[in-house]
Design brief:
Blueprint (H helix, E strand, L loop, with lengths): L4 E5 L9 E5 L6 E7 L10 E7 L3 E4 L5 H10 L7 H4 L5 H13 L8 E3 L5 H4 L2 H4 L6 E5 L3 H5 L1 H16 L11 H8 L11 E3 L3 E5 L2 E10 L8 E5 L6 E6 L13 H12 L4 E6 L8 H22 L6 H5 L16 H16 L3 E7 L2 E6 L4 H13 L10
Parallel strand pairs: 5-6, 6-7, 7-8, 12-13
Antiparallel strand pairs: 1-2, 2-3, 3-4, 4-5, 9-10, 10-11, 11-12, 14-15
Helix pairs in contact: 9-10, 9-13, 10-12
The protein binds fe (ii) ion (2 copies).
């Protein structure tokens, strides 16, 4: 029987505010999806938060305060804020979450465990602002725990990313991020957050050392080092995969390590009896294997385009601004770390199998040339590396 959802409340503004419920076979477990504001186009779109009712009340992700979504997605990147976003109350997404919980029959104080899919700010920053009277236990994978528990770690990663982007040939950002500095100095990024439940292996999700019925965690690195998914459902029944940002539809997630990401896709391909995939943004997926195959083919195409462009020495920014490399136009004159990093991770994987090697460094920018082999030979080595789990990644995060 197909697992279907039904709507409890429609979207209100900016494709957010909707509340949907999914009843799993056996009827003991229910999942409620609450869609909260996060910018589209410049960002991944509204963040879906999941409430899982089993023997405990578990929340998967909590979203981003609208005040910080405005700062992170627009002000830091020197992008104009659209009028309709500017008008939103600063706590708009938190209000949407509280209302969604009420419709589901709960309050924020009822949550036993908040589990965070990964350490990107659109998934956990509201945890700093939304809990007042009572805080639930908080769980995340240990590899993403540093940025979740500390705003300074997020800032450190941002500074390192900017330095790394200089070597790709990307133009520098327009100005120093005064908004960022003010936000950090003023404490708007939150203070440190205590983590209660470290996740470091696949298996039953636990609270105080006891397994929660019907929820398994699965480590799916590659979008971030500590990305996790939840497999929800009864043993032997059709189950639901909550996948965070590891699989998205129709947009494609950006890997931070393409080797690990392709391995995670393989792992997902091997899962059985997944009737529905519920992501953290955009549309649900009925066919897990078909989405995995689409993403594998997508990265194969991008690896080929990257490889073939390097018959002449190229830097990562040369690749990122090639026509049709991305669906969206990438302005060659604008700082765009998302685009630069996407090209870079494809180059890094090609370098790991010696399909690319550095030809020279000029004014601090690294240029790479391909090996001249047919792309298929290089891709076959990549696939061997994906299959060889003993081969560790050499990417630096
Ligand atoms: Fe993410
Ligand atoms: Fe996200």
């Amino acid at each position: 029987m197909a697992l279907t959802g039904y709507q409890l409340k429609p979207n209100t503004k900016l494709a957010s505010g909707r509340v949907r419920r999914f009843a799993l076979p056996g009827k003991r477990i229910r999942i409620t999806q609450i869609t909260t504001f996060c910018p589209d186009i410049i960002g991944p779109g509204p963040t879906h938060i999941y409430l899982i009712e089993t023997d405990s009340l578990v929340m998967f992700d909590i979203g981003i305060p609208t005040s910080l979504a405005k700062a992170l997605f627009y002000s830091w990147r020197n992008q104009p804020i659209p009028k309709e976003v500017k008008k939103l109350p600063l706590d708009y997404s938190e209000q949407q979450l509280l209302e969604g919980l009420k419709i589901a029959g709960y309050s924020i104080d009822d949550i036993d465990l908040l589990i965070i899919s990964h350490g990107h700010p659109d998934h956990f920053l509201s945890a700093h602002t939304i809990f007042h009277r009572k805080k639930p236990k908080i769980a995340a994978h240990i590899l993403d725990a540093p940025e979740i528990s500390s705003p300074w770690e997020m800032l450190r990663q941002w500074i390192l990313l900017r330095q790394q982007m200089r070597g790709t040939g990307m133009p520098p950002p327009k100005s120093t991020d005064e908004t960022l500095i003010r936000a950090v100095e003023g404490g708007a990024m939150g203070s440190s957050m205590k983590m209660d439940v470290p996740i470091f292996r696949n298996g039953p999700l636990k609270i105080d050392g006891s397994p929660i019925s019907g929820i398994q965690t699965i480590h799916l690195p590659g979008h971030s080092p500590g990305s996790i998914g939840l497999i929800v459902g009864e043993e032997g029944e059709e189950r639901v995969l909550l996948c965070g940002d590891v699989l998205l539809n129709p947009i494609t997630p950006h890997p931070n390590d393409l080797l690990l990401y392709l391995r995670s896709l393989k792992e997902l391909e091997s899962l059985n009896k997944i009737a529905l995939v519920l992501p953290a943004h955009q549309k649900a997926m009925r066919h897990l294997k078909a989405r995995v195959e689409f993403l594998q083919a997508h990265h194969r195409r991008r690896l080929r385009a990257t490889y073939e462009a390097c018959y002449e020495p190229r830097c990562a920014w040369d690749i990122a601004i090639m026509p049709r490399y991305f669906d969206l136009y990438v302005d060659p004159l604008k700082f765009n770390p998302m685009a630069g990093r996407e090209a870079l991770v494809h180059m890094e994987l090609l370098r790991m199998v010696e399909g690319l090697c550095r030809s020279h460094i000029q004014t601090g920018v690294h240029y790479f040339r391909n090996s001249g082999e047919p792309f298929e030979d290089v891709y076959a080595r990549i696939m061997e590396l994906v299959d060889d789990k003993a081969a560790k990644t050499i990417m630096r995060y």
